[in-house]
């Protein structure tokens, strides 16, 4: 099943549009692994997917400790996204994507700044062969995002437009499985949603700790909310995940 459909099926089955960002930190790799698995065990009923980042890949190893986490996500039927922000020349990008897909990830996040030819084309090719997903950055959630993603650029036809608008257009052109727009910028989500028209779903990190608000993020058109610290650092992560899920569902009604 293609990644976009897999996500839709999971969100429907779980009744949740929350993606857990499993961004744990610990002193030892053993503790990191145990805590990650424990968190998955308590939070899995309330989320539709899991996103991993370098927080776990670097200390645990892609074909080592991370495999134990992926075994759990498979058991819970949760699609997995690797937040590797692929951003190199095509040959290197292909190797990065191949490794993450071979390790078991369902999708990777990539940076459209590198362009298509000898940039992201090999990533989309390998994704298509393996029926996996590619999610493109469009407008990031942090404060300095405007410095790159908000720059005014010229397209081939010499028309001026903001970089994130050009990236949203590329997401359609390249048939991406999703775009990332920060929950901290609901007005950008609205603008990007108008361009994508639900053909490409919006993934939105930044709710809670970074200041994004569920209601404005969902109302602006985000399909999936990526949440890390608001769940992980909560006194009761299970309760926090459930509350987030329920708030999203209330806003969607
Ligand atoms: P928090 O703790 O802020 O974690 O809920 C958010 C997670 O999402 C990642 N992140 C992003 N990933 N584009 C991305 O691809 C973004 O704009 C973006 N903003 C945050 C962050 O690394 C963490 O894993």
Structural overview:
This protein has 253 residues and is of the alpha/beta class. It has one domain (3-252): Aldolase class I (TIM Barrel). The protein has eleven helices and ten strands. The chain has helices at 3-14, 29-43, 54-75, 90-103, 116-130, 145-149, 163-173, 186-196, 214-220, 229-232, 237-252; strands at 18-21, 49-52, 80-86, 107-110, 133-139, 152-154, 160-162, 178-181, 202-205, 224-227. It has an eight-stranded parallel β-barrel, surrounded by eight helices. It has a two-stranded antiparallel ribbon with strand order 6-7. Helix 7 packs parallel to helix 8 and helix 8 packs parallel to helix 9. The chain is globular and about 55 Å long. The two termini are 28 Å apart. 46% of the residues are buried. The mean pLDDT is 97. Residues 21, 23, 53, 83, 85, 109, 137, 140-141, 180, 182, 205-206, 208-210, 226-230 line the site of xanthosine-5'-monophosphate.
